[in-house]
């Protein structure tokens, strides 16, 4: 992740956006504009824990890229990112059309 963040920062400094994909279907409420892996309590609902890491979720198709977005900016403090500006393609009328990731 450190390498990816540094590359993204470099590209943004060159005034180029950075495309990325995300799995937003399972962990989002589009109407409310919420994207959070803890949005739903699957552990309680299914009486089990989901323990796969990110790589395992992709390998076993438990997760996949369901939505593309672009990084359009980054806020740096002492050269380190503390927020990313994300442009979402769902449109300006959607509550989640522009989100800030920390």
Strand order of the largest sheet: 1-4-5-6
Low-confidence stretches: none
Largest sheet: number of strands, sense, barrel closure? 4 strands, antiparallel
Q: What is the gyration radius calculated from CA atoms?
A: 15 Å
| Average of per-residue pLDDT values | 84
> What level of helicity do the residues show?
10-25%
Count of the domains: 1
Tally of alpha and pi helices: 3
Strand content: 25-35%
What's a quick, concise take on this entry?
The chain is an alpha+beta fold.
Blueprint (SSEs and pairs):
Blueprint: H1 2-13, E1 18-22, E2 28-29, E3 34-35, H2 42-46, H3 54-59, E4 67-77, E5 80-88, E6 98-101
Antiparallel strand pairs: 1-4, 2-3, 4-5, 5-6
Structural features, described:
- The longest helix has 12 residues, at 2-13.
- This protein is 23% helix and 32% strand.
- By secondary structure, it is of the alpha+beta class.
- The chain is built from three helices and six strands; from the N terminus they run αβββααβββ.
- The radius of gyration is 15 Å and the shape is globular.
- The strands form two sheets. The chain has a four-stranded antiparallel beta sheet with strand order 1-4-5-6, with helices on one face. The chain has a two-stranded antiparallel sheet with strand order 2-3.
- A hairpin with a 2-residue loop joins strand 4 and strand 5 (80-88).
- The protein has one domain (2-101).
């Amino acid at each position: 992740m450190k390498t990816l963040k540094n590359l993204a920062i470099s590209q943004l400094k060159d005034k180029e956006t950075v495309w990325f994909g995300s799995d937003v279907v399972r962990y989002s409420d589009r109407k409310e504009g919420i994207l959070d892996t803890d949005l739903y309590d699957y552990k309680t609902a299914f009486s089990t824990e989901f323990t796969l890491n990110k790589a395992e979720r992709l390998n076993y198709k438990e997760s996949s890229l369901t939505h593309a977005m672009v990084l359009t900016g980054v806020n740096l403090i002492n050269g380190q990112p503390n927020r990313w500006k994300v442009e979402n393609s769902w449109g300006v009328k959607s509550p989640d059309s522009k989100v800030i990731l920390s």
